[in-house]
Amino acid sequence: MFNYAVKIQGLLATAESLSDTNPEAAANYRAKAEELMREYRIAEEEALAQDVAAVVPIKVEMLLAPVRGGLNRDWYRRIFSRIADHCGVRFVIDWRNGDMYASVVGYEGDVRYAQFLYTAAFLMFSTRIDPVWDHALPEAENIWRLRNAGIERRVIADSAWGSGAGREAKNRSKVQRVYLKECALRGEQARAAGLGHQTSVYRDAYAESFVTTLGTRLRMAREATDTVGGGLVLHGRSDRVDEAFYGHFPHRRPAPTDVTPAEPTPCGKCAKAKSGYCRDHRLMAWTAADERRWQARTNSPSARAGQESGRVAAEGVVIRGTEAASRLERGGHAIEA
Predict the structure, then answer these.
(1) ∠ CA 112-118-123, rounded to 5°
(2) Across the beta sheet with 99-106, what order do the strands follow?
(3) Is residue 89 within 8 Å of residue 241, measured between CB atoms?
(4) pLDDT tier at 183 (50, 70, 90 boundaries)?
(5) Is 140 helix (H, G, I), strand (E, B) or coil?
(6) How far apart, in whole angstroms, are the C-alpha atoms of residue 189 and residue 129?
(7) Rounded to two decimals, what is the model's pTM?
(8) How far is it, in rounded angstroms, from Cα 58 to Cα 115?
(9) 321 or 184: whose pLDDT is higher?
(10) Which terminus of the chain has fewer CB atoms gathered within 10 Å of its CB, N or C?
C-alpha cells in the first residue's frame, strides 16, 4: 500500500513543479496520479473485505505553522481544517515550543494526500502573505515580496538595510519606490500603493479570501461529475476513521445522544432588568463606528486588494481532480477519480 502513496505523492509533486513551465506535461502527471489514486483506494477496500485488520488508519504528526511569522496562525488551522474535511481525515491541534502541530488520523492514502495538499497550500499562503527576508534573492525581489504581503515599509527597511533604518522617512520612501518599480517590471498593478494602505486590513482580507477560495475549489473537486469511471462510494470508511480517532483521543468522543443536556442556569440580573436583559446579555446596537470598521474590512481599497491577492494565491494551489472528480461520502474525499 505504501508504494502507492509514495508514487502518487511523487506524481503530484512533479505536476506542481511543471504547472508553470509545461502545463500539458503537468496535466498528464495529474491524470496518472488520478489512476493510481483510484487503484489505491479500491485495493484498500478489497483488502478490508478479506481481512478487516489488513489496512488500518494511521496517526501522523504534522507541523502546521512554525513560531516565526507575524500572521495570526489560526489561519493555518482553518486552511488545514478545510483540507482535512476534503481528505476524510480527523485531527487535533497542539502546541510545542510555540509551534503549531496537528495529530492526523486516517487511512494512509488520505493522510499522505492531506500532507501534500497542505504543503502546497502552506507554501502558496505563507510566501505570499507571511514571507520573511530571503538573503538568496535580490533586494528588489525581497522588497516586492514583503510589500505585496502588506508588510509595513518600516519593517521592510529594517530587514533590507539594518535595524532602525525604517525610522528614516527616506528609507521608507525608497522601499515604496523599489516596490512600484518592481511591479512595473512585472507588468502588474501595485497592491500596496499609497500612504492610505492599511496593512492589517489587507492581510486579514487576503487570509479570509484565501481560505474561502480554497474551500470552494475543494468543494468543486468533490462535487464534480466523473464522466469516465463513475462515482466511487466507500461505505463505512468515515466511521472506521472516527473509531480510530477516538481510540487515540478518547476524550474527543461525543457524549451519547440519549443524554438530555442540562438546562442553562437563568440569569438573575436579566430577571430584574426592565428590558429582560442585563448588561452582559443585552443585544448591542450597530453603531456608526461598527459600520466604519466593517466598511474598512470589506470595501476599502486595502481590503479589496487583499481579497484579490488571496483569491489569486488560492487558485494557484494544485488540487487534482477539480475538472473531473467523483462525489464521495465524507471520509472518502481524498481519492476522487
Answers:
(1) 130
(2) 58-65, 99-106, 90-96
(3) yes
(4) very high
(5) helix
(6) 17
(7) 0.69
(8) 13
(9) 184
(10) N
3-state secondary structure of 102: strand
Q: How far is CA 87 from CA 41, 83, 113, 153, 262, in A?
A: 12, 6, 7, 40, 35
∠ CA 191-125-205 to the nearest 5 degrees? 50
pLDDT tens digits for 202-232?
888 888 999 999 988 888 766 653 444 455 5
- Looking only at the bridges linking them, the beta strands covering 58-65 and 99-106 are antiparallel
- Is residue 295 within 8 Å of residue 205, measured between CB atoms? no
CA 125/CA 146 separation, integer angstroms: 13
Q: Which is nearest to 124 in space by CA: 20, 219, 10?
A: 20
Question: pLDDT tens digit string along 272-313?
Answer: 887 778 877 777 777 787 777 777 778 787 788 788 878 888
**Radius of gyration for the alpha carbons in the chain, expressed in angstroms and rounded:** 24
Residues counted in the chain: 337
User: Rounded CA gap, 150 and 142, in Å?
Assistant: 13
Cα 182 to Cα 145, 186, 253: the distances in Å are: 10, 6, 53
